[in-house]
Design goal:
68 residues, alpha+beta, Translation Initiation Factor IF3, 3-stranded antiparallel beta sheet, 2 helices
């Protein structure tokens, strides 16, 4: 919360390094650019975007680390 892209993506990438394949990271942010940027990040990084919702200006994403 309170950061603008690309910082949420960079923080997500760093957090994904600490996860094991199959684990899920929840990302919560208030930058609407996450809605466009997070699916691209997941596609390029090889992770699975499980779900993404926006409610009252808050975006929540659940990303599964995929074994590559």
């Amino acid at each position: 919360m309170g950061t603008i892209c690309p910082l949420p993506l960079l923080m997500s990438a760093k957090a994904m390094l600490r996860l094991e394949p199959g684990q899920i990271l929840e990302v919560v942010g208030d930058d609407p650019a996450i809605l466009e940027d997070m699916p691209i990040f997941c596609l390029r990084a090889g992770h699975r975007l499980v779900e993404m919702v926006e409610e009252e200006g808050v975006v929540r994403c659940w990303i599964e680390k995929v074994d590559r």
